[in-house]
Write a structure and sequence with these properties.
226 residues, alpha+beta, Fumarylacetoacetate hydrolase, domain 2, six-stranded mixed beta sheet, five-stranded mixed beta sheet, 18 strands, binds manganese (II) ion
């Protein structure tokens, strides 16, 4: 094939304890999936809703991340990320976990001021959620090794201070339900990632801040805003 411009590089995630890497296709995110975060954002229990990030907005492995432009209110949302090994459309809840290759911890970085403007005006969230380097993500823990965690602590510290401290067992919609619901909107496929929403405690971060987060039985991730 003769490309007119260079093709983009395939985004890949490391797999804990393995040499193969995981190629990323699409990145879906669930809005407000913990009652405590929905409450802090002023919303009640609602059916899951979805938005996306470009695959090349991921920052596999974390590390130093440039503070993004066009915001004065960058916030962290630590999330369990499910990585799919298969997919389809209209996947039944009972078969949804068969589609999961493994899990990682990720941060849905959010330009909260732009999101607030978008909400107020009924405009799209892309520029608030899908900007460059908006998705730091750790190594994948294969479900073959860690299973499908139904509970476990999910936490995030900023400069050593605990900001988010929840439990993935308290998600409004669990991973199987999310996959089943999302697959009624789009055909899912191997390589897709789903950020499953964040617990309470989101806060504003600044240049120079160090963020450390983790999920019991899944993994850890560190970033520094520079
Ligand atoms: Mn989120």
């Amino acid at each position: 094939m003769d490309f007119a411009v260079p093709p983009i590089a395939q985004t890949v995630l490391a797999i804990a304890g393995g040499q193969a890497v995981f190629p990323v296709r699409r990145v879906y995110c669930v809005g407000q999936n913990y009652a405590d975060h929905a409450a802090e954002m002023g919303d009640g229990r609602t059916p899951p809703f979805f938005f996306g990030k470009p695959a090349d907005a991921l920052v596999p492995g974390g590390g130093k991340i440039a503070y993004p432009p066009r915001t004065a209110n960058l916030q962290h949302e630590v999330e369990l990320v499910a990585a799919l090994r298969g997919g389809g459309a209209d996947i039944p809840v009972e078969r949804a976990l068969d589609c999961v290759f493994g899990y990682a911890v990720g941060i849905d970085l959010t330009r909260r001021d732009l999101q607030a403007q978008a909400k107020e005006k009924g405009r799209p969230w892309e520029m608030a959620k899908g900007f460059d380097r908006s998705g730091p993500i750790g190594a994948l823990a294969p479900a073959a090794q860690c299973g499908h965690p139904a509970g476990g602590r999910i936490w995030l510290k900023v400069n050593g201070n605990v900001k988010q401290d929840g439990d993935i067992g308290r998600m409004t919609w669990n991973v199987a339900e999310i996959i089943a619901n999302l697959s009624t909107y789009v055909t899912l496929a191997a390589g897709d990632l789903i950020f499953t929403g964040t617990p309470a405690g989101v806060s504003t971060v600044a240049r120079g801040d160090s963020l450390e987060c983790g999920i019991d039985g899944v993994g850890r991730l560190e970033i520094e805003l520079v």
